[in-house]
C-alpha cells in the first residue's frame, strides 16, 4: 500500500529560482534527483518522507484533511489512550475517527499496560482498518509523566519492551512505530536504548524529538542526537523531529544526520501549506510563493467550515480560536481583530472579521521561523515516586496513568 499517489497541490506561482529556504541570505539547493528515498514503513511507502506529528487537540480530521490537500506524506491522527478506547469512552472514540477520504489510517496510541495496548492495537487493526500505529513515549506534560507515561516510560526499559512487544505482536502486518525524546533530562538519557528496544521488538521505524523532556520546547533541538541514533539503529528507518520551520530545515536535518524522514509538528500550525513547500523541495522543484493574507483567510475559512461540518456544531469553532491566531501571526491586523478572533463563535463572524483586512498583504517573512503553540521550558519533569531508583521494574505504574482519556 502506498501513500505517495497524490501529487502536492500548487498553492501559488513558482518563484523564479528553486531555493529551499525563504529566509536565508543564501539559497541552498533543493534535493538532487535520487538524493533521498521514500520512507518505508512495512508495506507503506511514503514520499516525500514527511510525517505530520500527532498533536493533541490539533491533528483531527479537519486539520489532517487540510494539510493532506497540500501534499503527499503520512498524516497521523492525534493520540488516544488504550484503556479509554477499550472502554468505549465517547471522547476517545471520536478522537480516533478518520475521514472518508483518508486512504491511509494512521493513529498514535498511548498506554502503560502491555495487555491493554496489545488488545487495543488488535481491535484497531481488525475493526477500524488502521494501517499504521504510532506509540507515544515522548509526551513531556506533567499529567502524563507523573503517572509514568510518555517521556517517563523509557526509564523503565523492561516495561517499555513489554509494551512495544505487545503492540507489534498484535498488529500483524500493520507497521508499528514509536516516537520518543532524548531522555528525561541531561542526567537521564534513554534514546539509544529505546531505539534498540524498538529495533529488537520489530518496530517498523522510530522517531526522535531531539529534546529532553525537561527542555519541553525550549532551546534548540539537538539534531546531533538524531545522527547518533541513526548510527546505533541500522536495520529500521530513523526519523527526526524538532525545529523544522522551512523546507531547508528538513533537507538540512536529513543531510546532517542521515535520517530517513522528518516529522513536522509546530512548523505547520497555521501553515498547512508547508507540506506543499516540502513536497516541492524534496522533488527538486521551485518553492511555491508564500501565501498572502487572502490566501491565508481562504485556508482559515476552509478549515473552520470543515470543523463545523465534522463536529456538526458551530461550537466546534472554540477549537478553531487557537488556529486562527496561528494563521494570522505576524500580519499587521491590529490587536482588536486578534482579540476578536480569539473569541470567534460563528462562521459568519469569522468571515466578517477576516474580510476587514487587506487580502493582498504579503506574508510576514520575519515571523516565518517564530514558534507557535508550545514554547515553555525548561522545567523539572514530574515522575512517580521512586521511578528512577527501580529502572528494571517491568510492571505498569500503579498511579493511574491509564485514567487519562486523551493525551497532550
Structural features, described:
By secondary structure, the chain is of the alpha/beta class. The chain has 2 domains: 40-287 and 379-400, TIM Barrel, CATH 3.20.20; 293-362. Helices cover 34% and strands 12% of the residues. The protein contains 14 helices and 13 strands. It has helices at residues 61-68, 82-86, 90-95, 114-128, 142-145, 157-171, 191-200, 223-232, 247-257, 274-282, 293-311, 317-327, 335-341, 347-354; strands at 39-41, 44-46, 50-52, 74-75, 77-81, 106-110, 132-137, 176-181, 183-185, 188-189, 205-209, 238-241, 261-264. The chain has a 9-stranded parallel β-sheet with strand order 4-3-13-12-11-8-7-6-5. Strands 1-2 form a two-stranded antiparallel ribbon. The protein has a two-stranded antiparallel ribbon with strand order 9-10. Helix 8 (223-232) links the parallel strand 11 (205-209) and strand 12. Helix 1 (61-68) packs across helix 11 (293-311), helix 9 crosses helix 10 and helix 11 runs antiparallel to helix 14 (347-354). It is globular, with a radius of gyration of 21 Å. The protein starts with 38 loop residues before the first strand and ends in a 54-residue tail after the last helix. The model is unreliable at 4-18 (pLDDT under 50).
